[in-house]
Design a protein that fits this description.
187 residues, mainly alpha, 3-stranded antiparallel beta sheet
Length: 187
């Protein structure tokens, strides 16, 4: 994890080999009864292919890949406005969720700071890396009919509600499709 932090602090994507080690370390979680969520992974086609192979080897199905859509200027504003408490690690935003006192945590009174990877230059580097490495994943997962795109504008609660609704809709459609498959051929 320390090796990954060096890349993230610069705003760079962590190399596939390091990311893959971290995924393999937690691969037992793929069998959780309620399912699993991989946040920020895969980010490259190579990682997507490795994940596909891991899932096949473990005889697991990947049922959905979430893609949150947001205009570029909003992404930059969200990331560069984020602040974190030095003490309790609570997260604030300078405009969307500011603390009561500027730069002071409401919970523990410690000073807030901006993470290195949330500084404007790092955000720009991250977005460029996204365009080069991650954007092709949209096409990859659209081709396998797993991509679920969710509008990421608005409040966290609204985004969460849209995510849950999209996943429930996906589950209903998958259940109906699988039920139809168990009925056998239709006359």
């Amino acid at each position: 994890m320390k090796a990954a932090l060096q890349y993230m602090r610069r705003g760079d994507l962590v190399p596939d080999s390091i990311v893959w080690e971290m995924v393999l370390e937690r691969s037992g979680c793929l069998r959780c009864g309620g399912g699993f969520l991989l946040d920020g992974f895969p980010r490259t086609l190579a990682q997507a292919e490795s994940l596909k192979q891991l899932m096949e080897n473990q005889r697991l199905d990947l049922t959905a890949v979430l893609n949150y859509g947001l205009p570029l200027n909003e992404i930059v504003a969200r990331l560069s406005g984020r602040r974190t408490c030095q003490g309790c690690k609570a997260v604030y935003h300078v405009t969307e969720r500011p603390p009561r006192l500027a730069d002071i945590c409401d919970r523990c009174g410690e000073k807030l700071f901006q993470r290195e990877d949330d500084q404007l230059n790092s955000v720009k580097v991250r977005l460029e890396a996204y365009e080069q490495s991650t954007a092709p994943l949209i096409e990859f997962y659209q081709g396998s009919r797993m991509l679920v795109t969710i509008a990421a504008g608005g409040s966290l609660e609204a985004i969460c509600d849209r995510t849950i609704a999209a996943l429930e809709d996906r589950r209903r459609r998958n259940s109906a499709r699988n039920f139809g498959n168990t009925l056998g051929p239709r006359p």
